[in-house]
Amino acid sequence: MPANATLPNEQRPFVFGALAAGILLLIYFGALTLVSGWSFAVAQFVQFWYYILLLAVGFGIQVGLFVRLRQIIGQAGQSGAVMATSGTASTAAMVSCCAHYLATVAPVLGATGLVTFATQFQVELFWVGLLFNFAGIVYIGDKVLKASREHAQCQA
């Protein structure tokens, strides 16, 4: 593809979703490496890879759906308010999935109780993140389906 060519519309959601998942994994490894070193980041990934990959893929799906929703709304000339609302689920999922990493920073802040809580309930926090991730996918997916139907009716 030439440098000045644009990405075809039907590929944009997939490409942006894959990029979002990849960026999330880079942030995961980057943050853990900065806080505790590369070997700790790898050890954590090996121990919890299934949660981490599911969260990254789920986030990528949400971003892909969000991009698709923006395309539909842009074609229909509707307000972008729906996009702002649907982005809330992604934010909630990211906050809950990454909350357990506060355990490595919280002692510096003097929050010993938070460290104990985040460490003790790390797996549960992964599940909360996955739940929010799933809820975000369902929510944004529903918005995409509704917007697609409305757009198809306008075209008919």
Automatic annotation (TrEMBL):
Protein name in UniProt: Uncharacterized protein
Organism the protein comes from: Keguizhuia sedimenti
Regions that span the bilayer: 14-36, 48-69, 123-141
Keywords of the record: Membrane, Transmembrane, Transmembrane helix
